[in-house]
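quick one, two chains, predict together pls
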Amino acid sequence: MLQQWKPDPTFYPSPKMAIEAPVEELAYVAAPRDDGKPDAMCVVDLNEASGTYGQIVNKLELGVRDEIHHFGWNACSAALCPYAPHPYVERRYLVVPALRGSHIYILDVKEDPKSPKLIKTLTADEVEDRSGYTRPHTVHCGPEGIYISALASAGSEEGPGGIFLMDHYNFNILGQWEVERGSQSLSYDFWWHLGYDIAVTSEWGYPGMIENGVSLEDLGARKFGHKIHIWDIRHRKNIQTLDLGDDYQMILELRPAHDPTKAYGFVNAVLNMNDLSSSIWTWYKDGDDWGIQKIIDIPAQAPENPDDLPPALKDIGMIPPLVTDHILSLDDRFLYVSCWGTGELLQYDVSDPFNPKHTGTLKIGGITKSHPHPAAGPVSGGPQMVELSRDGKRLYFTNSLYVAWDNQFYPDGANGWMVKADINPDGGLELDPNFFVGFGDSRAHQIRLQGGDSSSDTFCYS
Amino acid sequence: MRHPHIIGGKIFFMDTVSWIGYISLGVFHGINPGMGWLFAVALGMQEKRRSAVIGALFPMALGHAISIGVVVLVIVLAQQQISTNVLGIACAVVLFGFGLYKLFRARHPKWVGMRVNFKDLTIWSFLMASAHGAGLMLAPLLLRMPAGGHSGHTHHASASMTDSAAVLLSAVGVHTLSFFVVTGIVAVVVYEVVGLALLRKAWFNLDMLWSIALMIAGIVTAGMVFWGH
């Protein structure tokens, strides 16, 4: 196949340039289900001039009970990195792992972006045989190809989970990424500081701890992850482990500064076992070592009527914020934090990564709260997967965490929705009262914006 | 008629066409972002100082020179052993085939790492130049210079070895100097003046052009074999 003559126009050398990118016109939204019907990749029209703005315009059905969850592009701005530039690959394929089914679907969106075509399916057996891992999760396009994290080892379904590489030309799995993993065993998210040759990985739980809802027994025993790991990506070696302490359970989404000269990032700890609070931490380069420091505590809230609490929370009598996702704007200024339990979305100015300023709050959904949306009335679920346009002006988010966990925390139903908030450039945000995408019985998880968003690309130039 | 042992008409063992050829290919290799200047710019941006840009150029030139030198050495040694026609055809086939392969099989060298020292950058540059067949592209120029051993004159073998060494050093030196100057100018201009927006607008596919250049070099080499020098 002949290559392109010009670099893909959606690749930007620096985050500053990516901020100038054109406004997104489509979103791809992962829509898992719980009723025996197939999961789907949904396409949402975001072009305000279009007659179908704010509607699902297409749906590509994938596997049944696959838990389509996170996904990413085959190629992105990292293709411009100077040490192995290959700017003529195209951002045209979505790499879509099934977090429960362990398949990986490759969708082509070039011909008609509104109608993704399934061009290849890697079966669970192929994924497990070739990578040595199972339960694939995060996808990042990187300088060497496509990197995918997975929760556990194939076969045992326990540790170690880790990262495997996929060829970005033919989507063959190339094998395990790590050479020396040290003590790392639990796995979840990963991202990197390409300017420092450093990768960071986080910890959730093994499949048995999460697939039937969060295992309260394992949680009580503090078996979920409470560390992040720092890796030398040139030697694929775990060089430091930062332990947040086992009071903190489930350390999930890693959001390094987009500017490659900045050596810090943010990660969320879902649950503090002492008071059910969630927290945000900053990891940072400290001389030759790395450190981590808590910067935000988000407390649990009392329900108006404890009888309304789901069984999982009845004994506790409180609503944990369950911070399960967050996103950092491309200018590294604003961090948006999803409180899935309490139905809030918080905005912080993190220009100083150690002294965040709370600059805005949205309320929608929430356990026992069901804060309403102007266009839809009371809604179930709460802010969960959050994505931000490259210019930082439009925030989109959905309400599903993981099908079995939705059922546990929102037992009255968690029909999927996606909403939008408009961002004030000086801080503050408000819900767009006219934008509400209902997914019916389907759930709605990760959002990817056409051409790239604030968690899809990595940049090698500041 | 060309004659390898007459200094007249030659400057440091090479004729004008060879000089122009080596310099031009140095320019061509120098403007390719994948050969060095882009990495130099990135290192400057990462460390926020121009000296990091300049400092990167030396190991890059060294790595490039070693890669080119290996190919030149192989060809010059082969010239002593194999008939010019056989060598010419072999070079033509390799060049054309490699160009065609690169044209239809887009691959890029694998390297991850921004924290690089002098040695790393030298190795990186060597790998990049080698993977792109940078030295191979010089083959038609080298084959224009008949080896001492085939000149028909009654020189000692040591004399022809000296000639070969001189050709090797001049070819590698001239090419590398030209590469170094062009890479350096582009790197500094992009770092100081133009900025990286250039990458989005002006970075047309030099790899494809490169593949085509390799194929052309192959055709030229074949032409030299069949229609004389």
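Chain B touches chain A at residues 33-34, 38-39, 41-43, 45-46, 48, 103-104, 106-116, 124, 196-197, 199-200, 203-205, 207-208 (CB under 8 Å).
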